[in-house]
Amino acid sequence: MSVHLRPEEIEARSFAMIEAEVGAHPWSAVEWPVVRRVIHTSADFEYARSMVFSSTAIAAGVAALARGRGIVTDTTMALAGIAKPRLARFGIQGSCFVADPEVAQKASSLGITRSILAMRKGAADPGNGIFVIGNAPTALFELIRLIREEHMRPDLIVGLPVGFVGAAESKAALVELEREFPDLPFITNRGRKGGSNVAAAVVNALLILAEENS
Amino acid sequence: MSVHLRPEEIEARSFAMIEAEVGAHPWSAVEWPVVRRVIHTSADFEYARSMVFSSTAIAAGVAALARGRGIVTDTTMALAGIAKPRLARFGIQGSCFVADPEVAQKASSLGITRSILAMRKGAADPGNGIFVIGNAPTALFELIRLIREEHMRPDLIVGLPVGFVGAAESKAALVELEREFPDLPFITNRGRKGGSNVAAAVVNALLILAEENS
C-alpha cells in the first residue's frame, strides 16, 4: 500500500513506471531526468514528445545554479514549487515580482501586464540569471524582446507558459530565437500545455543535476 | 497580438476557445465553470471527461467559502495558486502545514508522511472546513480515514493528487466513499492526472461562484 512507502521509494517506483511506459526516446542522458520529472509532476506523457532544449540549455542552466545565480519566476506558484532546501544549498535567491506594489502600479499606468514588468524588474538585477515562466505568454515575449532589443543574456530561460491565447506562439518564438542566438540557453515545449508546476519541476530537476555534479 | 489584450480579455477569449473545442458536455451550469477553469489552467481537455463532483459538492463548497471557512492545502504551491484577494473578501484563512516544524518532527518519529500529519493538523482546527489536495495521495487517504474512523465532516474536499503511485487509487477511494456518506461534498477526477495548479483552479472557480452569489 502506497501509504507505507517512503517518498524516495514512491519517486523511484514512479520513475520506473515512466521509463517503462515511455520506452525508447530521443533524450540525452542529462535531458531525460528533466523530461522524466516533468512527466512525474504532470502525469502527462505528451511532454515526452513536446519538450525542447536548446543546445546549451542543460550545461548552462546547471552551471548557473551551481554558481548561485538568482531565479525570477512569473508566478508565486512556480516559486513555491521550487525546492527551498536545494536553493539554500547553492545560496540561490528566488524572486517573483508579479505582486510587487511598484510593478502593479506601473502596469496600471502603462497599460501593460504585470508579468511584463515583473520580468523587467527581475532582469534589472544583475544577480538574476534564470527566468522561469509557468503562466504568462507576455512574460516570455518580454524576455524575447529584452534579448533582442536590450542585449539581455540570461543564463537560462525555462519558458513553459500554458494556455489558449499566446502560449504556444510565445514558445514557438523562443525556439525561433535560437537561429539568431545559437548559444541562448532555454528549455520549453511545443503547444498549449505548460504551467507553474511543470516549470518548477524543470528547475528542480536541474538543481538535482547540479547537486550530482558538485 | 495577445500582448495588447487585457487579462480579462485573454480569459474571455480562452474560455470561448474551450467552449468551442469541448462542444456538448454533461456538466451542470455550476459544474461547468469549474471544469472550464481546470482546462484553462492545464490546457488539458482530458478533464472535460475525467472530473467527478459529488451531488453536494458545488453547493456545499460555495456556501463554505461564503461563510469564510478555512482552507487547508497539501502543498505551498496549491496555496500560492489560490487568489489571495478573493480569500480576503470572504475572510478565509488558507494554511499549509507540510513544512511546519512540528509536522516534520512527528512525521520523522512516527515514520509516516508529512502530508498525512499536515492534514491531521489542519483537521484539528474547527475553523478549517475545505481540504485541498494537489499532490499527495497519502493526504487524501488520510482524509478518507478521518471521515470513516474519526467522524470528520469536511465542508469540501478538493482531491486532485497527481502521479503514478496511489494517486488514481486515492481518488477512486474518495469516489467510493459517496456510497457510505451520500452527503459528502467532494470534487475529484479519475486517473493519474491532477496537481496543485489544477486543485487551486477548482478553488478559484468556486470563489468566483461564491462572489457571483453574494
TrEMBL record, chains A, B:
The lineage of its organism: Bacteria, Pseudomonadati, Thermodesulfobacteriota, Desulfuromonadia, Geobacterales. Pfam families: CbiC. Keywords: Cobalamin biosynthesis, Isomerase. Residues 9-208 form the Cobalamin biosynthesis precorrin-8X methylmutase CobH/CbiC domain. This is Precorrin-8X methylmutase. It comes from the Bacteria. Pathway: Cofactor biosynthesis; adenosylcobalamin biosynthesis. Belongs to the CobH/CbiC family.
